[in-house]
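Researcher: Can you fold this with pyridoxal-5'-phosphate in place?
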Amino acid sequence: MNYYSLNHKAPKTTFENAVVKGLAPDKGLYFPESITPLPKDFFDNIDNLSHTEIAFQAIKQFVSPEIPEAVLKTIVEETLSFDFPVIKLNDNISTLELFHGPTMAFKDVGARFMARCLGYFNKDNTNEVTVLVATSGDTGGAVANGFLGVKGVNVVILYPSGKVSDIQEKQLTTLGQNIKALEVNGTFDDCQAMVKTAFLDEELTSKMQLTSANSINVARWLPQLFYFIFAYKQLHNKYNDIVFSVPSGNFGNICAGMMAQQLGLPIKHFVASNNANNVVTRYLISKLYEPKPSVQTISNAMDVGAPSNFIRIQEIYKNKFDTLKENLSSYSYSDEDTKYAMLEIYNNFNYVADPHGAVGYLGCKAYLKENPNAHCVFLETAHPTKFLDVVEDVIKEKQPLPEQIKSVMDNEKVSIKISTYQELKNFLLN
Ligand SMILES: *Cc1c(COP(=O)(O)O)cnc(C)c1O
């Protein structure tokens, strides 16, 4: 599959090159040149397909011929070595739990898939890359874990000192091997600015191949389309009109769901559920796309003022506002709404949701008000104990720590403190 830049000022390129470079030379996001729907019997026969078979069929066209079929089978099998259960709350609402991976965040799948692709591209030791990421919490842990031990890939994670949770910090800083954590004296925006400067620094990029591991990278973004097919498999015998409410920040996850829809998955509608960072909610009302600096909320993985994947969504719907609006609704909620929803979910369904999932639940409720016959699935994007302070404060009950989390809490933190870009650069060059 070839990929083109959504800025349309760079040559088309291969899957391999799109993954290794991250962004096109004109700074545009890469997008696949064509999308061929899956055959009808794939969906008719879905009950008989394993997760590995589903994922293999669904992503094959996007990664071939550079990743041979036998290699791809191994990559998806290793990537998907955990569960993706749908839990029914009532006849109209279910939740798709995406937190059963090693770091208990949905980003595990994308990180594991991308790491294995890069590992394959470096099979002859000729394609060494450095993955540079800034994280406000969840991405860093998933990337650290997903890339651990992958030959020819060095990972450097920047995180704001004192501004990630204890659990998140342990997940970033305790793995060792090819994973290095830089603790930045500053905010997440400072971390992100340093990463951006590094990508534009020709003295640096002439000496090393840098790439990103957030959802702008096609190998992080595309495998997320599996989730929607896995949920469909569990629900299609029970419900007709399946709608997904996706707690959205950079809009990578929801955009991957729209790719699944383009592959022929019968999804009736999408709901982009936002916290106070609501540029898309406002756009669907006013037709004006006005990014703003992000504001801090309790669902902080969605604190994004200018969602990077929205341009891909525009491309999927051919830049037609009306087509987009037929397929997408968006609602925005305050922290107070979110806490109230967490309590409601706990009291009514005896289910503990994290703040991101709770925003998704509210999106379902709003959509169902207008469309009472649909079945709405909200994505639970993180395990509630990853946001322990808020969760325990709201539901007034202690939460047991899952094994994956317990096992990292005893490990020793190793990080390097930096304050300036020059310190980052010196670190990378040594
Ligand atoms: C990253 C993240 C999101 C937002 O996903 P996008 O693909 O950026 O829209 C939502 N919830 C959690 C817990 C996350 O880590």
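Model: Folded with pyridoxal-5'-phosphate in place. The chain has a mean pLDDT of 95.
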